[in-house]
């Protein structure tokens, strides 16, 4: 056989192989490649969607954290205000109690002073009577002694 005949036969066999491959082998390969490309595209779109969902979730978390911080700051401010108010009320009550105690102490001191004056008057009156007895024992002059006793009584 000549080289031309061999070359022609090889070309025919090659064309049959190409035709068989195009008809039976190539469609499943193309189908598998298309399915694979679709899966990859779906995976990429799912990844993009998950990425955007994650960004949205992070944003919501940041908003909630910000709201929680603001709420905590408001509560702390309210607690501080309440504590300050309680302190002011306690100071007011303590001042009132102090004023009551001082007023009671002054009233008691005044009563004690009145009692002490009364006791002193009684002692002075007793001393005056003793003095009068001694004067009367020495000298009896009712006019002078009455005037003396009246002046003593006025001074008391």
Automatic annotation (TrEMBL):
Location(s), subcellular: Cell inner membrane; Endomembrane system
GO molecular function, one term: hydrolase activity
Main localization of the protein described in the UniProt heading: membrane
Pfam families tied to this protein: ATP-synt_B
Ranges annotated as spanning the membrane: 6-26
GO CC terms: endomembrane system; plasma membrane; proton-transporting ATP synthase complex
Domain of life: Bacteria
Coiled coil feature spans: 47-122
Signal peptide residue numbers: none
Keywords: ATP synthesis, Cell inner membrane, Cell membrane, CF(0), Coiled coil, Hydrogen ion transport, Hydrolase, Ion transport, Membrane, Transmembrane, Transmembrane helix, Transport
Mode of membrane association: Single-pass membrane protein
Family of this protein: Belongs to the ATPase B chain family.
PANTHER family: ATP SYNTHASE SUBUNIT B (PTHR33445:SF1), ATP SYNTHASE SUBUNIT B', CHLOROPLASTIC (PTHR33445)
Role summary: F(1)F(0) ATP synthase produces ATP from ADP in the presence of a proton or sodium gradient. F-type ATPases consist of two structural domains, F(1) containing the extramembraneous catalytic core and F(0) containing the membrane proton channel, linked together by a central stalk and a peripheral stalk. During catalysis, ATP synthesis in the catalytic domain of F(1) is coupled via a rotary mechanism of the central stalk subunits to proton translocation.
Quaternary assembly: F-type ATPases have 2 components, F(1) - the catalytic core - and F(0) - the membrane proton channel. F(1) has five subunits: alpha(3), beta(3), gamma(1), delta(1), epsilon(1). F(0) has four main subunits: a(1), b(2) and c(10-14). The alpha and beta chains form an alternating ring which encloses part of the gamma chain. F(1) is attached to F(0) by a central stalk formed by the gamma and epsilon chains, while a peripheral stalk is formed by the delta and b chains. F-type ATPases have 2 components, F(1) - the catalytic core - and F(0) - the membrane proton channel. F(1) has five subunits: alpha(3), beta(3), gamma(1), delta(1), epsilon(1). F(0) has three main subunits: a(1), b(2) and c(10-14). The alpha and beta chains form an alternating ring which encloses part of the gamma chain. F(1) is attached to F(0) by a central stalk formed by the gamma and epsilon chains, while a peripheral stalk is formed by the delta and b chains.
The protein's name: ATP synthase subunit b
Encoding gene, per UniProt annotation: atpF
């Amino acid at each position: 056989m000549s080289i031309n005949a061999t070359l022609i036969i090889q070309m025919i066999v090659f064309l049959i192989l190409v035709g068989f491959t195009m008809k039976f082998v190539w469609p499943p390969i193309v189908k598998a490649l298309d399915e694979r490309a679709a899966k990859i595209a779906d995976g990429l779109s799912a990844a993009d969607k998950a990425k955007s969902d994650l960004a949205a979730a992070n944003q919501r978390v940041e908003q909630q954290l910000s709201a929680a911080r603001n709420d905590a700051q408001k509560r702390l401010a309210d607690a501080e205000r309440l504590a300050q108010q309680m302190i002011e009320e306690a100071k007011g009550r303590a001042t009132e109690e102090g004023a009551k105690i001082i007023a009671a102490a002054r009233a008691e001191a005044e009563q004690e002073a009145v009692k002490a004056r009364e006791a002193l008057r009684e002692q002075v009156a007793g001393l005056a009577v003793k003095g009068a007895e001694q004067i009367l024992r020495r000298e009896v002059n009712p006019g002078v002694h009455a005037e003396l006793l009246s002046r003593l009584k006025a001074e008391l």
